[in-house]
Amino acid sequence: MPYKKRKLLIYNFGEKGSGVKPRPSIVQDYIGLKAQCLSRGSLFEDPLFPADNSTLFYSKPNQPTYKWKRPGEICNNPKFFVSGASRLDVQQGFLGDCWLSVTIANLSLNQHIFELIVPNGQSFEENYAGIFHFRFWRFGRWVDVVIDDRLPTDQDELAYLHSSDKNEFWSALLHKAYAKIHGSYEALNHGNEVEAMEDFTGGICEMFSLRLEVPDNLFTIMLKAFERSSLMTCATPNVAQQAGGTLQKRTPQGLITDHSYSVTKVQYVEVDTPTLSGRFPLIRLRNPWGQVEWNGAWSDNWPEWKHISEKTKEELKMQQKIDGEFWISYTDFLQCFNDLSICNLHPDSLIPYIYKDDDSKLWKLYCFEGEWVRGSTAGGCTKYKDTYWRNPQYRIKLAANFKNDSEKECTVIIALMQKHTRSQKNIGAVKLEIGFHVHYLQDPDNLPKPLDRNFFLENIAVVVPSNFINSREVSYRYQLSPGEYCIVPTTYNPNEEGEFLLRVFTKKVVNMEEYGEELEISKPAQSKVQEPRNSEKIKLTTNSYAKFAGGKEIDWVELKEILDEEIGRNLDQGGTGIISKALSLFSTKYDSEATGGFSKEICRSFIAMMDTDRSCKLGLEEFTRLFIIIQDWKAVFESYDKAKTGYLEPFSLNEALKSAGFKLNNRVRNALCHIYASSDGRIRFDDFFMCAVRLDTVMNNFRNIDPNNTNEAKFTLEEWVAYFVYF
Q1: Range 453-462, long-range pairs (CB < 8 A, 24+ positions)
Q2: Which residues are catalytic?
Q3: What's the rounded Cα separation, in Å, for the pair 282 and 275?
Q4: Could you report the per-residue pLDDT of 668-705, keeping only the tens digit for each?
Q5: Surface-to-core class of residue 435, CB atoms within 10 Å of its CB (0-12 exposed, 13-18 middle, 19+ buried)
Q6: Which of 274, 335, 391, 472 has the highest count of CB atoms within 10 angstroms of its CB?
Q7: pTM, whole model, 2 decimals?
Q8: How far is residue 665 from each of residues 518, 584, 647, 687, 715, measured CA to CA in Å?
């Protein structure tokens, strides 16, 4: 979608467009459900996330059984908050989800984000009904998740994430809501902070390895990220484990190994002391434990502070107390830390309120949903030259504007995310190896749409391609010259299926769109038809028609009898029926049905396609035109089934349908492949016919309502039902 300021849109759990498909299909509205409970005097029990083992585990049936209790059954005076929310409210439980615990703890550092995730007005005192709600970013949408407050306990203690105060429950309830949207608590085992930060902000995360090649302008990147209210975390190396010691250990410099820290400020500071003079890049970090701090240069007890002016100390908000927060120089930061993650916040939903009339510091977001479908858009990486160009393509135009960039290039962050891998763990879903390529368009006005095989053979990626890794998301920051580019998201191997979300952050408004064919119906490409129409063949069809019609129009049953008899005479009696010669493939190598001939479904669809007067029957003229169309489509199929296997090979459907007169976009072609392709992506002869019949029927019905070809039409409910049930 193009960049546009808009009011934050939040979907209810299960609502159409929310991206969540609960079973059974129920839309959960927090306000309405709470009102019902209060009017009945009952406590809410969530039917979509019941208090049993099905919501705890999915892989091992013999897991320990926990008792589900409401907060009032665990302690005498339950509170949603005790003295507000803080980093100390989060304690990890029995799950291996420290990646999530650290991120939840850091939410309290940004009040605006916290109030978006944890809506105000929830408590155990006023209008308590055993129901609470939280919000998460879910693949491009914000979803409001309703839960009851029954929590798993072990010996009267919360089994999973909980607060350090026994009677505080906001963090445990938030944890339960996050487990619900992923299907179970066990689905939260193992992950990384990047995934959680994005789910809590809708932002794009960049990951920098401080042990590999560090960008020369990394501090500038961090400084600008801080100005844009981006969330940042960093982690120390796991040197203790490498040396055979404990997993986490305090270093002589006061840092904890294999530990995550929050970046709370990035700033240059001017100082002039007996030993230091100049402008220094500094970073303020916070240990989520609330204690154990850095003791090197710029730490709380650093001797040089006594030579630094009070004005500078005030500017840095310097506090000499053990609170887990400390300053460190950029140089020491690079030496002591292993990784840096920057979550650039979603511009439309989180921070317009902060910057109000000045959005110069806001990222502009462009977001596209797509999918890789076997035999259609799952082309694989550039290694597979014959199919790579089949992947979805996205065109972006970067205009020259050097005002805020230190270099005369455009800053672009590209992130490709595969969807639903965590929530589908219980059905064996695994992360695909995903990545993307960026190609420069030298002469954009004279290129095919979409870009074809020849283009990619002659034009390699203009920047270092993303790595292909089995991560939920891969993201990279690029400095690109002004011009037009094509972004190609892909899996590593062809024919690997999955849904994805492509997001692009830019500092300036740009033009970006999906780059592919437009949906339309046209005359068939006669050059692809190998068998010419024969007037004698067409004449002979009237004999078969007259035999069954008896002077009347024929229905689908009689149509099937006509076609089946022609085929049967050819197979069983060696006859010369014209239709049987043209279509005997159905009952031989194409194996349409066990008895041969056309299926009932196709015959009904033939009637709907040709029935111009809505009589549900065909006259002779309509029947004759149908026979001509059948000849054409059969010839098209055979021209693409060169090996005479009875199937179209993967990726051939689009060209075959184009020859039959249909131009399809990715969305429609993907839908057809989902319905009609076999598990290996091939299309059978009769399924090709069903694709063509349904496309012809739907498109022509639409054109009847849109005679001026505006690609917009208004249907009454009656018309909608009549047109789309009858085919």
Answers
A1: 453/385, 453/386, 453/388, 453/389, 455/389, 456/382, 456/385, 456/388, 456/389, 457/385, 460/382, 461/382, 461/437, 462/438
A2: 98, 259, 287
A3: 17
A4: 999 999 999 988 889 988 889 899 988 888 888 888 88
A5: buried
A6: 391
A7: 0.78
A8: 6, 32, 22, 19, 23
